[in-house]
Amino acid sequence: MPQMIACFKWVVDEAYIRVGASGDLDMNAVDYKISDYDKNALEEAARIREQAGGSVTAVTVGVPEATKGVKDALSRGAEKAFFIQDPSFRDLDPSQTARILAAVIQSRIPYDLILCGEGSSDLYARQVGPQLAELLGIPCLSFVQKLTVEGDRVVAERRTDEGQEVCTAPMPVLVTVLPDINTPRIPSVRDTLMASKKEVVPVRKEDLPDISSPFLETVSMKGTSLKRSGTRFTEDPGDVKAFVDTLLQKGVLK
Amino acid sequence: MDFKLTEEQELIRKNMREFTEKHVDPIAVEIDETSRHPEELFKKLAEGGWMGIPVPVEYGGSGSDYLTHIVAVDELARSCASTGFTVSIHVGIACMLVLLFGTEDQKKKFLVPMARGEKLGAFVLTEPGAGTDVMAATSTAVKDGNDYVLNGTKTFTSNGPTGDVYFVFAWTDKAAGRKGMSTFIIPRGTPGMEVGTHFKKMGLRSSQTSEMVFRNCRIPKENLLGKEGAGLLMAMTGFDHGRTGIAAQSTGILQAALDESIRYSKERVQFGQPISRQQAIAWMIADMATDLQAARFLTYHAAWMKDQGKPFSKEASMAKLFTSEAAMRHTIKAVQIHGGYGYVKGAKVERLLRDAKITEIYEGTSEAQRMVISGNVLR
User: Fold this and answer.
1) Residue whose C-alpha is closest to residue B62's, from B18, B8, B17, B102
2) Best interface-test mutation with A: which of B9, B13, B14 has the largest number of A CBs within 10 A?
3) A130 domain residue, yes or no
4) By the 8 A CB rule, do B154 and B212 touch?
5) Tens digits of per-residue pLDDT, A164-178?
6) So what's the ipTM on this one?
7) Is B194 a catalytic residue?
8) pLDDT above 90 (res B181)
9) What dotted CATH number matches B7-119?
């Protein structure tokens, strides 16, 4: 019966970002959400618990206003949450997030299996999972699209550039999940209402060891836009050739 | 003053949004065209606890408040007005009537399966000759030993063909006037009760509507809801809740009209630029967005009044009057913005326009709402 931790990040919902003419991002009217793949991590933990038993603790690092995100996570099957919060935690770099998580998990949360999303929907650096495993000194299985717990080991199907591979690791272990691993549930009304009654352990900056300065500095952030050329091709053989030539010319095909 | 929904309400709205994108949007056109009641969808709504949001957990509900139910109906109707309405009348009228007026036994027997979404409720008041003029009803229920014997014809019964639990209004003492009507809970299949075929309607087509005929329909006295003679009061209380639901449904329709108009007007290029840059179109959208905001405030305020335990007949009528007329006004504009593309079957705005019309008619016409409102303010 694995004791599980599912890590999640409360991110800007990109659907609400407005991109100005010069690519500037208007975040004035944004809403927030649990990062997409972290929902898969939470779902996978809930799914394993429903099949194999155990427990699920949700953990997040963020700003104190992220209480809605904590409730959202608790409505998705976690029994308890650790909410590591500080106003300065809005723009942490992945190494800082991993160090904060490692400090709290090591000292306060027993675990056999840690689940993280492959990357966050906002910055998608894909760093926190592997760095956290390294700091905790446990194996890391990344890009996992299928996961089973067998006794004191996990069996994971990983998707790599070369294809798929199946590997196993002893617990404790950290797994980062791909979106294909499951379909996150839509919490029932009751799940959402009960979430507020579950235990949330607040952890503040003062409770943490010194988190050193970031390795990354964000200089600016701009929106990109996709310009379409508007060229049309028909099923005419001449057009098919023109289509292939265009792809070759643009470097899509080599 | 606080205009904020709670975090739970915001999450519930978001979850309903996701639910509609996944389960309702893909079938909305089909169930409108075929006039089909999507049984499979209602199973999923039941599983999610959407069929009894304000009903306490001990009676099978989700144990939340009325505003939360209204927020869910608003979001659901944004995707499909028919589905939003079916949930609204089931929860807002059927469930609320038993919750407010039922005995403990009636709550266990009827409310629990309704709030769990296993059984669907229907409100059976309107008669061929008695619409806005409820007192013109002719259905009667005559006491006979431990039973009542019901006779009469009802029409435009929403959830008639698909209902499991019917709330039927009939005179027990016509001479007593406003204190002479009573409400009966009649389960589907009761001998003497006949459900007519589903009407073919202009809009709201997947919501099932029919005539109902009662011929010497024998009902045990345990199925009398509340006290004998309290029927009219219960109908009015039901309307307060139901009208707030129609206001939410109209708000959802209006929101959808705005969503579609914004999306299309930014895509559609005429005279070398998106039509959203034409003032004629931009101002239509400005008016639409403004009325939507007002619609939502009026609607949520009526539900909030209910949750505060205050009388909310006037607020419910105002919300329904304003939102339904705004929905009608702006769905016409939404079709106009879409031009020919909006007049074609399968275009969402075409369905929105047809669905909007009924909101000015049922659960009290706009004229009936003005009677309630003027009666309140001229008192």
Assistant:
1) B8
2) B14
3) yes
4) yes
5) 999 999 999 999 999
6) 0.93
7) no
8) yes
9) 1.10.540.10
